[in-house]
C-alpha cells in the first residue's frame, strides 16, 4: 500500500478560450480521493461539475483546456500526459458514465458486440471470454438473465436498463476510478435508488473509487462518503457527507439544502436561492456567491479565505457557526 491517495487534484484550472473571452469553468479546484471512497460533487447547473469530471479523464475538447494545476493518479501526473497514454488509462483504470447512456452505447451494435469490443480494446480476449465477462458484469449491475440479453440492441432496453449497461461497460476492466456524471438523473426514483445501492456495494466490495456528480443533494447524501460543493468553478465547502449536509457552514450549501422539497413543510413555498449563477466569463473579484448571499457584506468583495477545521473546508468570509 502506498501512502499517497488514489487521486490528488491540486489547483486545477480548466478554461474555455472562446471568442467572447475566457470562460473559467474550473478555477482552482483541489481535492483528493482514496481507494474505495465515494465523493459526491454537487452544485447548481453551470457550476463546473462536468468540466471537472472531463478534466480528470482527459476529455476536455478545444476551445477548452487544462490551463494549470495537477491531477495525480496513483502518484502519476495526468496533466500533459501524451494522448496515447491517456487513452490506455481511460476505460481501463479510469472510466466514465454519462447522464445519457446514448453517449456510451452504439445503437447499431448489440449489447454483447459492444461490450466485447470494450473488453478487447484493452487486451487480448477471445469473443467467448469477452462475452462471458460481459454477461457476468451485467449480472453484477442487476440485469436479470444477462447472457440471454447480450444479443439485444440498446433500443430494446428501458432507460434504466441502458444506464445499467453503460455502468457495466465502465466496470468491465475493474477500474480503480469511475467518474459518473448525473448517471441517474434521467431515471425514475425507484430505479435511481436501486442503482445507487448497487454502485455503493460495488465500490465497497471492489475498492473502486467513485466521483459521483449530481445536482441532487438527496442522492449524494445517500451514496457518498464525502461531498464537495461547487459554485462558479470553485469548491466552496467540502467535508464528510452526513456532517456537512446536517450542519453546512457555507451559506451556499445552506441555500441548496433549504431549496430541497423535503425541507419545506406542506403548503409552504420552497426557499429557492435568489438570483442566478454568474457568468464564468468575467467574474468580479471576491466571493462569486456574494450577490446572492444573505450574509454578504463589504468584505465579500475580496477573495474569501479557506476556513479549515478538523474535517471541513469552507471558503467564506462569514461561515455559519460550526455545530
Ligand atoms: N465547450 C464549451 N465552451 C465554452 N464554455 C463551456 C464549454 N463547456 C462548458 N462550458 C462552460 O463551463 C461552465 C461549467 O459547465 P459544466 O461543467 O457543464 O457545469 P455543470 O456540470 O456544473 O452543470 C459553464 O459556464 C459552461 O457554460
Ligand atoms: Mg454537468
Automatic annotation (TrEMBL):
It is found in: Cell inner membrane. Pfam families: ABC_tran (PF00005), oligo_HPY (PF08352). Keywords: ATP-binding, Cell membrane, Membrane, Nucleotide-binding, Transport. It comes from the Bacteria. PROSITE patterns: ABC_TRANSPORTER_1, ABC_TRANSPORTER_2. It is a peripheral membrane protein. One of its GO terms (molecular function) is ATP binding. GO terms for biological process: peptide transport; transmembrane transport. Residues 7-257 form the ABC transporter domain. InterPro entries: AAA+_ATPase, ABC_Ni/Peptide_Import, ABC_transporter-like_ATP-bd, ABC_transporter-like_CS, Oligopep_ABC_C, P-loop_NTPase. Its main location: membrane. Gene3D superfamilies: P-loop containing nucleotide triphosphate hydrolases. The keyword Membrane applies. One of its GO terms (cellular component) is plasma membrane. Transmembrane segments: none annotated. The keyword ATP-binding applies. PANTHER family: DIPEPTIDE TRANSPORT ATP-BINDING PROTEIN DPPD, OLIGOPEPTIDE TRANSPORT ATP-BINDING PROTEIN APPD. Belongs to the ABC transporter superfamily. This is Peptide/nickel transport system ATP-binding protein. It comes from Falsiroseomonas stagni DSM 19981. The lineage of its organism: Bacteria, Pseudomonadati, Pseudomonadota, Alphaproteobacteria, Acetobacterales.
